[in-house]
Design brief:
Elements: H1 5-25, H2 38-60, H3 64-84, H4 92-114, H5 116-123, H6 137-141, E1 144-145, H7 147-176, H8 180-186, H9 189-215, E2 220-221, H10 223-244, H11 247-254
Parallel strand pairs: 1-2
Length: about 260
Amino acid sequence: MSMSIKKIKRLNIVIALLYIWFGITGMIEGADPSSRFYYVDNIVLRIIGAALIVTSVGLLLRKEIARKSFVALMVACVLEMIITFDTSVEEKVVIIATAVFAVMIYALPMIFYMLPKVKRCFQLDEWSQYESTFANYDEKQNYKHSGIGIASFVIALVSIVIFIAGGIITYNSVIAGVSSEEVIQASPIVVIIGILFIGCMISSVVGLVLGIIGVFARKKKRVFAVWGIILNLIITAIFTLSTLSNIFNENILDGNYYMLFIG
């Protein structure tokens, strides 16, 4: 029996709300502290958590790009679980429980959003029993890209570069086994990167606002504006989640900016 549009709507709302909750509460845990992947996995999961929040909001808004992003995130989560899984575990119960968790939390939602009828609902915006039409399609093809939207996208890319640079410095300092005070004394660039992180947070908020303005620009293509919103929102969400977990407040007072990424 074919799944009805009404049932697809309901499941979409349930899944979106569930993963917003997952992202906010950090329910999806990563590698154990004893694992060699612990610090890197910690950073990866924070990014995934923020991306889940943004993507799930997009699912509530019934955006095709959100559906694709959600599927990609589920694949990333499965790979993260496989790579960081402790192969020394011999208890079959643990292995079975992990496999069941992966299927329930990652595989089933991913399969749902890959179903042809669900894809059609997102791609053609067919959320009613009637097919949507594209009478204005040719007219929209002649629109130019929004300048504000492009600015939002560029700001997001710059913020991501700064963010990655900070992550690399953090990872290298952890591998070297250097304390936070030693790092700051030995490498003034850490302080500079810390200041850039604050600038990154501010610029991502500005980029987010510009993206929203670009989306509502009349007779303009909105591709860059939409991507600007998504990327800037992910960056903003990462810093927001850090604030909620008290990591941001505790470390910024001590000047340990790079500790934002390793808790």
